[in-house]
């Protein structure tokens, strides 16, 4: 009897994960990928001697002893050589005021530094530090998402509650508010802004507490060779499991018969049929294009109507003859003068320095990257008006960013050998992400409260995975795994995993 087949749309981390777990469970598989290489949003590319990384900022749970580390082992990426331990959470720099605040990983040290900066805010600082301490030394790297909600039993929930005992007070009440609300009464507004940007100002307080605890436990690292290499290792694991993958193959339509997904049609007219389809790409594209909007359902339609998308980014990367020794990897910089993009002003940029590995540049050189949130419509309109205006605006902003960086690193512009610029249109072109949204919906209080379904109303044998289902690297990888768990559950067969 031949094995049943699973077709997977997209070779990002979710699709590759789904492919690996499908093969582990005996399904024939084929992944169709729009781009010419794997990774999706987790992308790197060469510019001369320099490697530009446009994807994963940091990894969690890279040490043995966590559920996430076991997932890495199953996907073939647990090699310690893949990871460089983080030494700091980052820095906040105000160019105008000439001040800098560094965020150490140790919460006691951080609390002491904050109270020295603002004694009047000691009560809130102590409250935050106490909460982080409560979360410390607990495995939080998978957020309790090893199994999909659809397969989580009452006993499973009780077990989770028991493991999380003592933490629920920090996941309710004021800790469910946004960081922006939580810090609204602080006397020192500079410190409040620093805390708000530990992740995003819209993030729930408990989520930021959890991140600080994971960082303090030494479970945050950088990818030593960049995110594409990480994706290629999962692709290798998938191929070693005899999985098939086809690149430069864009799915044009999901084929349906009697409200059951039965296959796909590619843009070249090729059709392929399977018992199950896992769409691990953009959900908007899946629902409104591949399925012609027929199976969206009220809840998902409401999310598209009322939820904010994750904001797209503009990123300028510079390959320079400088190593940035002793500089933090992550830096939030408040600009002396705002960048102006259409009607919008950008008052701060996020600067990433790739000084933690020799894989990004030759000896004595490095890559420095600046990025900020921007508007899809602005860039899409420029793109539509023609290459000349679009290119001119990209180059203007890159030049102005370099001028701002010069205020911190004197003479930097003279050391630049390579400039690379990416806009929301760049991401959309290579990944088909709707309006250049890198993570589906914006991470905020509303999005945390309501989970995205992994199936579509009225359509059987199709499962969803990826950023729109669950954000962040752990969530994305787990979403691919969960899709296969749901297939196994439908077939009333056990779900298997194995390590390399």
Automatic annotation (TrEMBL):
Pfam assignment, any one: Amino_oxidase
Residues in Amine oxidase domain copies: 13-487
SUPFAM superfamilies on file: FAD/NAD(P)-binding domain
Any one GO biological process: carotenoid metabolic process
Domain of life: Bacteria
GO molecular function, one term: oxidoreductase activity
Name this polypeptide is given: FAD dependent oxidoreductase
């Amino acid at each position: 009897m031949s094995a049943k087949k699973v077709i997977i749309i997209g070779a990002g981390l979710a699709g590759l994960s789904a492919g690996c777990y499908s093969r582990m469970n005996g399904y024939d598989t084929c992944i169709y990928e729009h781009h010419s290489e794997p990774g999706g949003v987790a992308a790197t590319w060469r510019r001369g001697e320099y490697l530009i990384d446009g994807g994963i900022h940091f990894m969690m749970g890279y040490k043995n002893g966590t559920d996430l580390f076991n997932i890495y082992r199953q996907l073939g990426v647990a090699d310690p050589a893949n990871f460089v331990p983080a030494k700091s959470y980052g820095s906040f720099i105000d160019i105008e005021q000439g001040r800098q605040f560094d965020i150490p990983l140790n919460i006691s040290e951080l609390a002491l530094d904050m109270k020295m900066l603002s004694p009047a805010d000691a009560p809130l600082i102590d409250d935050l530090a106490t909460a982080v301490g409560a979360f410390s030394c607990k495995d939080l790297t998978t957020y309790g998402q090893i199994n999909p909600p659809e397969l989580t039993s009452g006993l499973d929930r009780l077990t989770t509650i028991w493991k999380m005992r003592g933490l629920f007070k920090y996941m309710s009440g004021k800790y469910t508010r946004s960081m922006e609300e939580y810090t609204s009464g602080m006397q020192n507004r500079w410190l409040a802004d620093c805390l708000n940007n530990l992740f995003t100002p819209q993030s729930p307080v408990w989520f930021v507490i959890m991140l600080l605890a994971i960082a303090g436990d030494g479970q945050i690292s950088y990818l030593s060779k960049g995110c594409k290499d990480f994706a290629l290792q999962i692709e290798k694991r998938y191929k070693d499991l005899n999985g098939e993958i086809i690149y430069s193959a864009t799915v044009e339509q999901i084929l349906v018969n009697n409200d059951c997904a039965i296959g796909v049609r590619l843009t070249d007219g090729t059709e392929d049929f399977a018992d199950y389809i896992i769409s691990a790409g953009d959900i908007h594209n899946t629902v409104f294009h591949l399925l012609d909007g027929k199976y969206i359902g009220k809840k998902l339609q409401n999310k598209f109507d009322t939820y904010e998308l994750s904001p797209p980014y503009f990123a300028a990367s510079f390959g320079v003859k400088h190593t940035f020794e002793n500089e933090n990897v992550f830096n939030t910089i408040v600009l002396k003068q705002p960048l102006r993009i259409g009607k919008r002003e950008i008052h701060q940029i996020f600067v990433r320095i790739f000084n933690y590995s020799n894989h990004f540049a030759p000896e004595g050189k490095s890559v420095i990257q600046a990025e900020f949130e921007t508007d899809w419509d602005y860039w899409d309109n420029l793109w539509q008006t023609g290459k000349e205006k679009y290119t001119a605006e990209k180059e203007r902003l890159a030049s102005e960013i370099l001028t701002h960086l010069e205020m911190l690193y004197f003479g930097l512009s003279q050391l630049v050998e390579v400039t690379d610029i990416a806009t929301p249109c760049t991401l959309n072109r290579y990944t088909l992400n709707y309006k250049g949204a890198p993570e589906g919906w914006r991470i905020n209080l509303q999005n945390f409260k309501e989970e995205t379904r992994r199936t579509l109303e009225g359509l059987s044998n199709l499962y969803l995975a990826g950023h729109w289902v669950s954000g962040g690297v752990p969530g994305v990888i787990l979403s691919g795994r969960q899709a296969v768990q749901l297939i196994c559950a439908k077939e009333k067969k056990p779900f298997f995993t194995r390590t390399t």
